[in-house]
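Your task:
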Amino acid sequence: MNPADEHHKPWETQRRGLLLLMSSPSGAGKTSLSRRLVADYSDLTLSISATTRPPRPGEEDGREYHFVTEVEFDRLVTDGEMLEWAAVHDHRYGTPRKPVSEALDMGHDVLFDIDWQGARSIRSAMPHDSVGVFVLPPSWSDLSRRLHARAQDHEEVIQRRLARGREEITHWGEYDYVIVNKNFDRAYADLSHIYRAERLKPGRNTWINDFVEDLRTEGP
């Protein structure tokens, strides 16, 4: 190992993580893009929400969700320990603040597969750490085709998702980046470039100041 590399290595770990907030209408490909990004980058982890719903067969606490009681969820909200939360189909879901803050302080990045309301709440709470990416379909007919191709929902549910999606896409302007997912590989390349560029911003790399100072005093 080069002595200079060994000397600089501790600084390169002194970075602050970022929060990557990804939103889209259902069926636009957000989840597939986010899962691939997490698989490709070891410093990036998927945020795990807390929920009051019971675990489904095969789910594990701390893997799919943090499963908590209604009383515990109330306490987290009252004590300000939730970055955001919402009620969905008689249960509540939310993002615990502590593990996110700890990840940022350790230089780890956290990806959120989240709707626009949740993304807005997190950005409001942690504006300097948040990077928003909104994923759009190439056309409405393509979005409808994707939802039908899943064969997971009844027609009534699909139409409800499409109706909700028309409202959701009006919030694209609240995000830092917009990706039109016409071709998955191209969309993923754009997402990967966004993530890597955001990691290089000086404000997230606290080692740079000391590194530059050493450069200035190095040599004859």
In short: The chain has a mean pLDDT of 89. The CA atoms of residues 47 and 87 lie 18 Å apart.
